[in-house]
Structures are given as structure tokens and as C-alpha cells.
From TrEMBL:
Domain of life: Eukaryota
Coiled-coil stretches noted in the UniProt entry, renumbered to this chain: 289-323
Record keywords, A-Z: Coiled coil
Compositionally biased spans, kind Gly residues: 219-232
Biased composition (Low complexity): 199-218, 349-363, 382-403
Protein name: Uncharacterized protein
């Protein structure tokens, strides 16, 4: 592709979905130019890239969409191939390459048959007697699906049953592989069994000549060589049928293993995503624990300070309560003293009034005299005497009107 040389760096560094988009655009342009060969190539490449992109994502809807696009461009590639008016040399080369690959696959199947024959699992009648012993030769977890098959399904399996995935390409490949395998087996069986028994020196020149001779031997006279050849032909048919069943089993096993492998790959991707999510959750939890511990330590220090402040306030409140109790006691004592003073003052007032009334009517010097005109009363008055009288009255009133001492002073 010429465009790939220009945009090779961008193409190689892009994701499979982007590469598929490039191929899809090229396929559309080729279809508009009626270049069906290029459209077929680009459509096939776009389908492959879409499938690769589907294998790298985990979202089900995205996978379904990518698979649908892959099927669409595969269908367009087939349509372009059918619209191609004449086959090209590249297609013939591809066919030859496919035949070569099928021949290699047939050789591998022949090698597999040889190894099965060595362990006694290739002959038609040896499957039942080696049912219990064959399990140690199997390396798959599918049990005896490689080399054993139930008796009910032996007669119904044929060439048509090799359509594993329903694709025409797979059916053609399996049919060609089985045909080549059958030809090689017939050559080996006929070459190994017929030459020692024939005394007339008649040799087989090929697969077709030997088969035609066995078919002609059915209507001929009862010759010993023909009857022996007929028996060999029947045995060969049984061997070929058994090999067909083994090939079918192996293909089905490969399909099952591939599906299991796909499931395991998807499961591993899902587990990888889950591990990444768990790692993120673990990191977020560690960060949350760190922040939480810092906040808790700050709140604990604040709480401790508040507890100390509360204890200090409670101590101050206790001291105030004690002081209030002392003041209450002092107030009650003061009130009782004031009440006693009031009672004593009321008694003293009554005594003073009675003494005053009696002294105003006492005669002075044997005759009646007026207290207001008595000179002695005037001469008896003096400021000093008044001050002394006032001081004595004040001292007596102070003696009765003094309150009790303050609780704090009393304590001192």
C-alpha cells in the first residue's frame, strides 16, 4: 500500500481501531473507483483490525459494535470478490499457498496417526479395549475427546460433520486435508498389505488403479487374490472411517480449546481490570485513613484543651459557690443583729420618754419653777457637757448598731 509508506509512523503508532478506520476508508474509496481487488484487500484488513480492537477492550457493547463492524467489512470484502470480473494472479498464488498449508497439515495429521498407532489408539477395534488405558496418554483436560468417541455417533459422523464453525473456508480446508490424508493412508495400506500376499507379481501403479481393481474384483470369479484384496479394501474403508472420526474429534477439541482460551483471556483481562480497580481503591483508602487520622488527632487535642478549660471553670464555680455560702451566712447574721438593734432601740426609747416626763415635774429649790425659765437649766448647759453627752449617746448607739464582722475579716 502506497499510503502506508507515507503514513507509516502514524499507522504503526495508532491503535487497532484507528488502523481499521484507515483500511475502511481505503476500502470505501476503492469501491467508489470500482477497484474491487483493492476493496477486497482493504475490507479484509479492516475486518482483522476491528477484531484486534475488540480483543483489547472489556466493555460488552463496544465489543459487539467492533465485531459487527468486522463482520460488515468482511461481507463487503466478499462482495468485492464476487464483483471482480476475473481472478487475479494473487488469488491463484493464495490458492497455491493454501494448498501447501493443507498439505503440511495433512502431513502433521499423518504424523499424529503414526503416533496414535504406536500407542495402540488408531485401529478401529482398539478404542473399546483401550478405553481405560488411554487416559494416561491424554494431556488435555477434555478427557478422552481426543481419541475416544461413543459408539452411537460413529456411524453418523462423516465429512460434512467437519464444519466446525460453519465457514466455507474451513469446510474446504478440512475436506482437502481429509482427502489427502485418505490418499496417503490408502497408499500405505495397499502397499504394505497387498504385495506380500500376491504371488502373481501384480503390482499397484497408483491409488486409482488399485481401487478400480478392487472394485472390479467384486464381479469376477472366486479368485483368492481378489477375495484377499476385497478384505483389505473393507479394512481400509474402516480405517479411513476411523481416521475421519479422529480428525473430527481433534477439530472439535481444537475448537473447544480455542473457545476456552478465549474465555480465559477475557477472564484474565477482567481480573487485571479488577486488580487495577482494587489498587486504586486501596490507595484511596490509605489516603482517607491518613486524612482521618490527622483530623482525629486535631480533634483529640482540641477536646483535651476543652476538658482542661471545663475543669478550670468548674473549680472557679466551686470557689464562687463557697464564697456565696459565706456571704449568705454573713447576711443572715447581719440581719439578725439589725433586728436585735431595732428591738433594743425601741426599748431605750420607752425608758427615755418616761424619765423625761418625771423630771419635768420635780420642784427645784422647794418651789415650783418652769424648766424653760429656770436659770439653773440654762446655766447647767454647756457645750462640753453636751459634747460629752452626745459622745456617750453616740458610743451607746454605736455599741448597739455595729454590724457583725465580714466573713473574710472574721477569717483574718
Amino acid at each position: 500500500m502506497g499510503w502506508k509508506a507515507v503514513e507509516s509512523e502514524e499507522y504503526e503508532s495508532s491503535a487497532p481501531a484507528v488502523q481499521a478506520h484507515f483500511h475502511a476508508v481505503r476500502a470505501e474509496e476503492a469501491l467508489r473507483r470500482d477497484d474491487y481487488v483493492q476493496a477486497e484487500k482493504e475490507g479484509h484488513l479492516a475486518s482483522e483490525k476491528f477484531l484486534q480492537a475488540a480483543q483489547r477492550v472489556s466493555d460488552k457493547r463496544t465489543i459487539d459494535a467492533l465485531v459487527l463492524l468486522a463482520e460488515n467489512y468482511e461481507y463487503r470484502s466478499k462482495v468485492a470478490r464476487t464483483r471482480n470480473p476475473r481472478p487475479v494472479e494473487a488469488e491463484e498464488e493464495k490458492v497455491r499457498k493454501t494448498e501447501t498449508q493443507l498439505n503440511v497439515a495433512a502431513a502433521e495429521m499423518e504424523e499424529l496417526w503414526r503416533r496414535l498407532n504406536e500407542i495402540g489408539l488408531s485401529s478401529p477395534g482398539s478404542a473399546d479395549k483401550n478405553l481405560l488405558m488411554s487416559s494416561r496418554h491424554l494431556s488435555s483436560s477434555l478427557g478422552d475427546s481426543f481419541c475416544l468417541l461413543p459408539a452411537k455417533t460413529r456411524t453418523t459422523i462423516g465429512v460434512v460433520a467437519t464444519a466446525v464453525d460453519g465457514g466455507s473456508t474451513l469446510r474446504a480446508a478440512v475436506a482437502s486435508r481429509m482427502r489427502n490424508q485418505r490418499q496417503r493412508l490408502m497408499e500405505q495400506q495397499l502397499g504394505g498389505r497387498l504385495d506380500p500376499r500376491r504371488s502373481g507379481g501384480t503390482s499397484t501403479n497408483g491409488n486409482g488403479s488399485a481401487t478400480s481393481r478392487y472394485q472390479d474384483g467384486r464381479g469376477s470369479s472366486g479368485d483368492g487374490d481378489d477375495s484377499g484384496g476385497q478384505g483389505d479394501f473393507v479394512g481400509l474403508q474402516e480405517t479411513v472411517a476411523h481416521q475421519k472420526m479422529e480428525i473430527v474429534r481433534l477439530l472439535n477439541t481444537v475448537k473447544t480449546l480455542s473457545s476456552e482460551n478465549t474465555k480465559l483471556v477475557k477472564k484474565c483481562e477482567a481480573l487485571t481490570n479488577i486488580q487495577a480497580e482494587n489498587r486504586e481503591i486501596r490507595d484511596s483508602m490509605d489516603l482517607f485513613k491518613k486524612d482521618y487520622n490527622q483530623k482525629v488527632s486535631r480533634e483529640q487535642s482540641k477536646l483535651k484543651m476543652q476538658e482542661e478549660q471545663i475543669a478550670k471553670l468548674m473549680e472557679e464555680a466551686r470557689l464562687k459557690d463557697d464564697r456565696i455560702a459565706k456571704y449568705d451566712k454573713w447576711y443572715k447574721t447581719l440581719k439578725a443583729g439589725a433586728k436585735a438593734k431595732q428591738l433594743s432601740q425601741s426599748r431605750d426609747g420607752g425608758n427615755v420618754a418616761s424619765s423625761f416626763s418625771s423630771s419635768s415635774f420635780v420642784p427645784n429649790g422647794g418651789g415650783p419653777s418652769n424648766s424653760f425659765t429656770n436659770s439653773s437649766s440654762f446655766h447647767a448647759y454647756s457645750p462640753g457637757s453636751e459634747e460629752s453627752t452626745g459622745s456617750s449617746a453616740t458610743s451607746s448607739s454605736r455599741q448597739f448598731s455595729r454590724p457583725p464582722a465580714h466573713p473574710n475579716r472574721r477569717a483574718l
